[in-house]
């Protein structure tokens, strides 16, 4: 996909200035548009007819109109459709510094879903009488480059309306809810208003980037002007948003809403697939499993014994029934039993017509040639008979969608005769480690280097969760390499996990690179371990992915995964994200500072009195993986809490799928 910034206009309402080059927040309007557009597409070009050298200095090709005489944006589009070498072209005007960061993704999704040639953004507005109407923004369009002939035919008529030619192609409209994102700047007055708005203190996660520009010494990869903090952030709207001291519960709530905001089809692919029954193990059901049959299909015997009519039992004396037939599982008696008669019956055999009670064979008072004698009170009428449909009635759901399929569920589904099961597509999760010091297993360990362990724990936990892990290796602390890795991950996965580089250390470029690719917040969590974390959504080439920048320290990375990323992944999979917490007695004292949540690794055991108790595993340093390996649970100590004394009750979360 090529992105085209439309900057070739006359700027009439601004006094014939070159609109794209108007100063805005320390750079120019066009530079802001470039910054937001570049991550969403493969490459960018600018349509400009003046000051071409200045535009070229932004590091992207500049395409002047091939049609003579400032013919408006349509002339820029015409040239771009002729020159662009990709299948898709996305346009945005040079005066829309707040354009949506999911513009490409949403337009592409709609285009594919509706089989359209062109997708155009729209917003809902209300007219003077307050009635809602859809306002189309033709300058924000994604189109197949193959539409050039239709555009040419329209231009040949001499008309120049931006969307005048849309009648000739199949168009999809995509309504965006963030109307302000489409606000363009037509007059110098507008520009002043916008600048004034920009001057207000910013509350979102990237504010710290702004405050300490020297902590991030590299130049942005796409060659545009120095990075500005993002103007609009989904995080800014959260009440009491506190990126520098983020309570765990608040972070979890923000992450939940971040996942909920997503429409249901990541990457526009069908969420469900049908798999053979066995392959459904550990997958999430995409639909209810409705029983096509009654289970069991007939009334049948629960015991090996004798079937008769309970009403014939004498209350005070033994009753003897003559045995007239035998019923086996899968082989019915075939002979009706009359009054005073019974049928020898095996477990699972169909109850002969009219009979309602089974005497287990070991309870028979006597078995002689004359028949079976039942002592009074040895069996109640109706006993040991399983009813048709008692397990499941035909037409009723046996299992609900969203259920993680267990071994028992495989059996249950098989009992219904169902051979294929609709399950949700596995979530694709790309992950990589960052750090110049990291070596892969099998490599030589030179001075100062360490083996990369995080990728192995992440592989393990992702497999346990039933995700499709995409291991992207270890990436150097280098902006270009990080940008390439993040873009690659974004284009191929639903979720990206990285480890390392999110603290504000000198070599931690990843923060800046992430901020350039999307709406990413950097949090200093009020927790231990796992203090630094990045969370957000990044976009590249029409795709977007949820991003978790986990801390580098191996234990911190696992803890942050378990308490933040795990729930989001399950939520996206459509499964239950809740974690079980238990209150358990602490066998020993636990040291804990108030003011931050602590996640200490524990061993849950049953003591000599048969009671559960928990003990912390040795040294709790955030780099000491052994503490994790020895543990079977996490002891969760709430922020407000201080030390725990021996015998105190503490919260414990057993490891489910973490190890
Ligand atoms: P960082 O967050 O990048 O500053 O890393 C914090 C600490 O975790 C440093 O001591 C790193 O060497 C270590 N670390 C980072 N990534 C990994 C990894 N993939 N495996 C093992 N240790 C790591
Ligand atoms: Mg590092």
Strand content: 25-35%
Over the alpha carbons, how many angstroms does the gyration radius reach?
A: 34 Å
Oligomer: single chain
> What would the principal axes of the Cα set say about the shape?
extended
Give the termini separation.
Answer: 41 Å
Number of strands: 35
Number of helices: 14
**What is the average per-residue confidence, as pLDDT, rounded to a whole number?**
88
Cofactors and ligands present? adenosine monophosphate, magnesium ion
Give the CATH H-level superfamily of the largest domain.
Spore Coat Polysaccharide Biosynthesis Protein SpsA, Chain A
Query: Mind summarizing the main beta sheet?
Result: 7 strands, mixed
As laid out across the biggest beta sheet, the strand order is: 5-4-1-6-8-7-9
Would you give the CATH topology of the largest domain?
Spore Coat Polysaccharide Biosynthesis Protein SpsA, Chain A
Low-confidence stretches: 199-232, 263-269
Labels describing this entry:
659 residues, alpha/beta, Molybdopterin biosynthesis moea protein, domain 2, Molybdopterin biosynthesis moeA protein, domain 3, 5 domains, 7-stranded mixed sheet, 6-stranded mixed sheet, binds adenosine monophosphate, binds magnesium ion
